[in-house]
Amino acid sequence: MRRETFVVKYIMKTKTKILIVSVDFPPHTDGVSTVAHELASRMSRAGEQIIVIGPQAKGAKEYDSLQKFKVIRTPWYEFGYLRLLPILFVMPWVILRYRISIVIPMNIAYGGVIAYLFSRILGFKYAMWAYGYEFGKFEKNKFMHNLYLKIYNNAMFVAAITEFVKARLIKFGVIEEKITLIKPGTDHQKYYPIKIADDFKEKYNLSGKKVVLSVGRLVERKGFDMVIRAMPEIIRVHPDVVYVLVGGGPFRQSLENLANVLSIEKYIRFAGRVPDEELFKFYNLCDIFVMPSRTLEDRGDIEGFGIVYLEANACEKPVIGGKSGGVTEAIEDGITGLLVDPFNKDEIAQVIIKLLSDRELAQRLGKNGRKRVVEELNWQRAVELFQENLGIGHIK
Q1: Which terminus of the chain is less hemmed in, N or C, by CB atoms within 10 Å?
Q2: Please, are residues 268 and 243 in contact by the beta-carbon 8 Å criterion?
Q3: Averaged in consecutive runs of 10 residues, what is the pLDDT profile of the chain (396 residues)?
Q4: Using CA atoms, how far apart are residues 112 and 144, in angstroms rounded to an integer?
Q5: CB of 159 within 8 A of CB of 178?
Q6: Contact (Cβ atoms closer than 8 angstroms) between residue 222 and residue 290
């Protein structure tokens, strides 16, 4: 018995110690936060020793208290690139204090830069994630281009979230052998179809309404302004429609101004950032999910994938996305959703009208979407593949 106890303790001591570094982490609800959370929770569940460096945020203490992994919070999230400075001091200390073997920077501009600078000095390895927009904007900036190439090419591997991102990485100059394709997924046990009670509908004045939903950071790339521009035509055919936007961001004021200019503000609901339980309800409450993301070439700003499409699909909702970036890999056109020209408000309007009018088509797309999430695009598969590339064990 004593020998068995010793063996268990020895195994635990020799488990790989992994540090995940992210300036986007729950309670924040964007795509990078979701990826980081799934990695941390599923690898810790498998017995790996996980520590996370994440930003301070409202509700962080409650979130942290429920996790099996340790979270160390850093300030200055709202200060843009200055948020690098707290991480610069905290990250080396954590690596030394906890004898970290592998670092996973979720954002190259923050954890990635620091991991590259300290990896040889402190003797750890690091693996990267690539989404598309973070390196695309530096294709013409020689200094940043060269720095990012060094960071990527010195990593154990770079996890590209789509074939599209993989191709962009190769074009950027990353060694092809360093890149592995790991498509994100969603948790079909967390997101699933359910009937929503009337009190939630009443809270947002949505009783008896057809609901078109968008979820995401309110930035120009997401194309939410094009949905608002399409609303007058949609309202003409479906006067009981309401467009709900869940999320916060710098583009919100512009979106509100546009709704006012078009005199359709009563048809728009800005819900802001919401807790997970309300997000789940919004997905199930809506009739259609839409995010017509577009590529802003002059800024190198692209949509690498779009986890929110999968979350909506998991709730058996049809999804609409823009024909750009990696969205075409998140949505199977005509099977799990429909793709549109993200710069054409009339096309966006007609596709939304079509799905609001054709209930049978909408239900078929939604059911196909859930089937795909359950069988293919789920976090269990994605995180196991990531662990295989790290050279550590499977999730139980």
Answers
A1: N
A2: yes
A3: 38 70 88 92 92 93 94 92 93 96 95 94 95 84 94 97 94 96 92 94 94 94 97 98 95 97 97 90 97 83 88 98 93 97 97 98 98 92 93 63
A4: 13
A5: no
A6: no
Question: The dihedral of CA 143, 100, 91, 386: what is its sign?
Answer: positive
Amino acid present at 291: M
Whole-prediction pTM value? Answer: 0.84
Structure tokens at 199: 């009190």
- ∠ CA 49-53-55, rounded to 5°: 145
How far, in Å, CA of 288 to CA of 285, rounded? 9
Contacts of 281 (CB under 8 A, 6+ apart): 196, 200
Asked whether the beta carbons of 280 and 191 are under 8 A apart, the reply is yes
Q: What 3 state SS string does 297-324 have? A: HHHCECCCCCHHHHHHHHCCCCEEEECC
